[in-house]
């Protein structure tokens, strides 16, 4: 569960990168050029300009990230950060579409399985755990949780969890207030929460879980500073939630989308489709991409750096979602017409 919560917190931070995009000695938000130092994120884009990703610098012996041209499928790599979005660096030092399937999901080779060949094998077209026991939820297929070293059915969202979060679906937690499996960041002001120094993921944004176990207003949330004051330059952290510091004007500008609404939609989609937190989460073949990628695509279209690399990589994913939706509508229309024709035929005959 700890690994899942860490991943969830990373997701929240990614959804706020337009506001809090941390650069080296940050002052304000700007799009970085090729070779400029950056801070990586799960999208691999960070605040790099159009067509670039934030990857490790091959010319620097220390750990450093700069905006670079991504390595494509089959090209040589030093680590996964330099590979294009949805690709990882293989043991053969080539960018490859690997480690995208969880236990119980389809595969064609052992490398497709996320947990590694020491734990999982691709048998009869599916990733299967080599051991008869589990140590974490990720070693169980979607819809199951690891309880007492065995994979058992997990508790679905809004179902009773009787005070334990170990059996809730992926990313969900057991609310002490309602005793139901709940969405992260869903508890309101003054609701009961579980205090944790490391992971504060239960209360809504702008709230934090106090040591007394209730959701309270976060003390370190700042209101918008220097929103219309041109005499002072705003800093990257001086703008309130829903705003970012613009380098050109020196003012806090409104964001173009709702970060929390995006996070909620994304989390609900992951839980609804019971996707696991695989290593290559953004692979074209992963459960997340197949079912939920269109949500991220919508957000990236509003990236202030106008970075098209994300939508180009997945250009047909949102089209598939659209076609799927239209196919369902056409099926309903066709069925309706068929029923009407049958009704007319009955009337004519009788």
UniProtKB/TrEMBL annotation:
Keywords: Membrane, Signal, Transmembrane, Transmembrane helix. The keyword Repressor does not apply. Residues 1-21 form the signal peptide. The chain crosses the membrane at residues 330-349. PANTHER family: DD-GDCA PROTEIN, DICKKOPF N-TERMINAL CYSTEINE-RICH DOMAIN-CONTAINING PROTEIN. This is Dickkopf N-terminal cysteine-rich domain-containing protein. It comes from Dictyostelium discoideum.
């Amino acid at each position: 569960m700890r690994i899942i919560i860490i991943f969830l917190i990373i997701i929240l931070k990614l959804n706020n990168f337009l506001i809090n995009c941390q650069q080296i000695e940050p002052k304000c938000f700007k799009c970085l050029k090729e070779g400029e130092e950056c801070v990586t994120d799960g999208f691999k884009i960070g605040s790099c300009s159009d067509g670039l990703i934030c990857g490790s610098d091959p010319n620097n012996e220390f750990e450093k990230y700069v905006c670079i041209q991504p390595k494509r499928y089959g090209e040589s790599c030093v680590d996964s950060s330099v590979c294009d979005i949805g690709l990882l660096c293989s043991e053969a030092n080539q960018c490859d579409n690997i480690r995208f399937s969880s236990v119980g999901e389809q595969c064609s080779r052992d490398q497709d399985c996320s947990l590694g060949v020491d734990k999982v094998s691709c048998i009869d077209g599916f990733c299967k755990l080599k051991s008869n026991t589990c140590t974490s939820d990720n070693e169980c297929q979607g819809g199951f949780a690891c309880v007492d070293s065995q994979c058992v059915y997990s508790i679905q969202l809004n179902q009773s969890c009787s005070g334990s979060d170990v059996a809730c679906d992926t990313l969900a937690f057991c609310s002490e207030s309602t005793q139901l499996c709940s969405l992260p960041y869903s508890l309101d002001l003054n609701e009961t929460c579980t205090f944790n120094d490391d992971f504060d993921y239960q209360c809504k944004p702008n709230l934090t879980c106090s040591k007394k176990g209730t959701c309270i207003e976060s003390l370190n949330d700042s209101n918008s500073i220097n929103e219309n004051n041109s005499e002072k330059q705003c800093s990257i952290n001086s703008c309130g939630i829903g705003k970012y510091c613009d380098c050109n004007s020196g003012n806090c500008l409104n964001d173009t989308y709702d970060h929390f609404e995006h996070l909620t939609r994304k989390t609900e989609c992951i839980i609804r489709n019971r996707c696991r937190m695989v290593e290559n989460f953004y692979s074209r073949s992963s459960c997340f991409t197949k079912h939920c990628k269109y949500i991220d695509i919508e957000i990236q279209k509003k990236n202030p750096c106008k970075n098209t690399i994300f939508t180009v990589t997945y250009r047909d994913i949102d089209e598939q979602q659209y076609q799927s939706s239209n196919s369902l509508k056409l099926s309903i229309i066709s069925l309706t017409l068929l029923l009407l024709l049958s009704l007319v035929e009955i009337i004519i005959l009788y």
